[in-house]
Amino acid sequence: MSNITLDAAEEIIAAAHKRAQDIGKAVSVAVVDAGGFVVAVRRPDGARPLTPDIARAKAYTAAVMQRPGKMLKKWQESQPVFFAQLSQLPGASMPILATEGSVTIKKDGEIIGGLGIAGGTADEDQVIADEVLAALGYELEFAAWGVASRSAGDSGKDA
Known about the structure:
The protein is α+β, with helices and mostly antiparallel strands and about 160 residues long. The chain has helices at about 5-20, 50-65, 70-80, 80-85, 120-135, and strands at about 30-35, 40, 100-105, 110-120. The N and C termini lie far apart (about 35 Å).
C-alpha cells in the first residue's frame, strides 16, 4: 500500500488555501495517509479554532472508510447507530464524519490518503476539495459499496 508523501500533502494544502482565498474563505486543511495518520494540517489566519480538528476527522473518515464523505451520508442516515459505534471502536483514533469536504485521495487506482476541508459551507468545502484534487491529477471516481471497481484498462463504456 502506498501513502501520500509530505510534499504531495503540502501541494494539496497550498492549492486548497489558494482556492479558498479565491472565494473569500479561511479554511483549515488536513491530509492523512491511507491508514488515517496525519501527514499535514494547516489552519490559516482567520480560520475558526475548531476547524483543524474537523478537517482532520473528515480526512480520517475519507481514508479509513475508503470513500468520500458525501458517498457515506446515505449509509450513515440509514444506520446511525452503526456509524455512532464506529467512532467507539478501540482502533478508531478520530470520529467518523460522513459529510462534505471529506474526500478520499486516490492515484492510479490506489487509495493513498484522505483530504479534509473545514471552514466554509458544506458545499464550499466539497467544491474546494474536488477542484483541487482534480486539478492535481487525483481520481474522484469511486465504485458504490458492494460494486467492484473498474480495472485500469476498462473505459467504463458499454460494448
